[in-house]
Amino acid sequence: MNPLADGQWHRMHPATPLLRGGAVLVAIAAIVFANLRERLVDWVARIPDRNREGDPVDAIVEHGWVLWALLGILLLIVLIIVWYRVTWQMTQFRVTADAVELKSGVLNRQNRQARLDRIQGVNLHRTLFARVFGAARLEIVVAGHDANLHLQYLGSAAAEELRREILGLAGSKRAAEAAGFETGAAPLPQPVGDIVRSRAEEFVMPADLHPDFAPASIVKVHPGRLIGSLILSPFTIVLIAVVVWLVVEVVRGNYFLLVAVIPSLFGMFTGYSRRFSRLARYTISGSSDGVRVGYGLLSTSSETIPTGRIHAVEVVQPLLWRPFGWWAIRIARAGRARQRGQAENASTVLPVGSLDDVGRVLPLLLPASDRTALLALVDATARYSRTARVFSQPPRRAAWLHPFSWRRIGYAYVGDTLALRAGIVYRTLDFVPLARVQSVGVHQGPIRRMLGLVGLAVHIVDVRIRPRLSVIGTVAGVELYDQLARSAVMLASRDARS
Prior knowledge:
By secondary structure, this protein is α+β, with helices and mostly antiparallel strands. It is 42% helix and 23% strand. It folds into three domains: 3-196, no CATH class; 223-279; 306-494, no CATH class. The strands form four sheets. The chain has a six-stranded antiparallel β-sheet, sandwiched between helices. The protein has a six-stranded antiparallel β-sheet with strand order 12-11-10-15-14-13. The protein has a three-stranded antiparallel β-sheet with strand order 1-2-3. α12 (355-365) runs antiparallel to α13. Keywords: Membrane, Transmembrane, Transmembrane helix. Residues 88-166, 280-338, 406-462 form the YdbS-like PH domain.
C-alpha cells in the first residue's frame, strides 16, 4: 500500500507554499510591469517624457514615495509567503477505507470528504513550475457542484501512486492496484545527483507514459500533424485577414496602427504556442479504471476518464482538414462544467488523427458498442457513401431547407448507442449512449410543418456537443422520439453506472 494511503493525516509537498504563492507573486510582477510598460517602450524608442495624467508611477515619483512603494511591495511579498506557509501547515489529508478527507483553512476551517463510492476519476496535473520541484496536483473528481478535492501539491511519483491506490480502493481492487508497490516507511532522501536526474527524466517523459503506471499509447500524435492542424483552422483565416489589412494600412501611411495592432497580433501568435504546448505529447491508453489521457509539453496533465461517465462522443472534421484526412474526437462527461465554473465541458480526447486513429480510440470510449459497426459508421461519414444505406436519411423535400447537406443528415443505431451525422463543410458524427440521454425534444416551425418535417434534439449534460437532427420526416421523427424516450428510461434504470 502507498504510505500516503495508510489512513493517517499527511501534509502536502514542502514546496507547496512557493507553488501556490508563486501565482500571486507573478500577478504582482505583471501589475508592476503593466504600469512600467509605456516607460520601457519610450526608453527603448528614445521618446521624450510624455504627460501621463493620473499615472500612479508619476504620482509616486513626484511625491518621493519610491522607497516606501518598494518597501510596501516587499512587505506584501513577505506576507504572501508567510500566509501560504501557515496555510500549508494547516492543510492535511488522509485516505481511509471509506473516503478521502481534506482539512484546510486558517481562519475558516474546512473538512471535506470524497466518498470512495462517489469518486468518478482522479486526474493528475503538473504545471511547469511544479515540475521543477518534482510536484503535481491531484484532482479527485466527485459528482456534485464544486465537490472535487484538490490535493495541492504532492510529490510527482507519490501522486501517481496515490492516484492508482485511490482508483483501486474506489473500484474494490486494492490487491491488484497495490501490486508492485513496496510497503513500509517512506523512502530515504535521494542524493542531489539523483534528484537532478529524475527531474530531467520527468521533463522528457510523456505526460502519461510512466513505465510503472500506464500502458503505451494506442495513438501517436505527430508534432508536425499537430502544428498543421492548428494552422489549418478558422482562426488562421482571421489572422491572415488582419495581417493583410494591417499591411495595406501601413502602405497608406497609417503607422499608428502598428502600435495598436501588433500587440494583439503577438497575442494571437502566442495563442498558437499555448495550444501546441497544451496538446503536445498527447497519449491515450486504456486501463481497468477507464481511458487514460495525458497531454502537455511544459505543464502536463493526466486524466482517467471512466467510460460510464461519458455522455457523448463527437467525431469532427473541419473543411481545411479534409484533404489530409484528419479528424478530432471530443467527449462530453458529467461534472466538468460544474467543477470548473464554465459553460463548456467537452474534452478533447484526440486533437488530430487519421481515420485509423479514430478507429482505435472509439472502441475505448464506447466499449459496449460493436467495433466493426462503429468503424462502418465513421467510414460512411468520411466517404458519405450514397449506395450503402448505413444511416436513415430525411426525405428529399428536406432539400428545401438544406439544399447541399440534406443527404449528409441521418441517424443509425449501434447496439444501445445512437449515432447522428450532419454537416457538409464541418462534418460531425455524434455517438450518444441511450442510458446517458437526459431528455429528447421534437420541434416544428411553420416551414417544417408545411414540408412535413420536424427537428429532433437529444439533450445531454453538455452545451458544446449538441446531438440533433435538423430535419427528419414527421412520422419518422415522432417514431424516433417515442423509441428514444422509452429506450433511454429503460436503459438508464438498468445501468448500474448511472
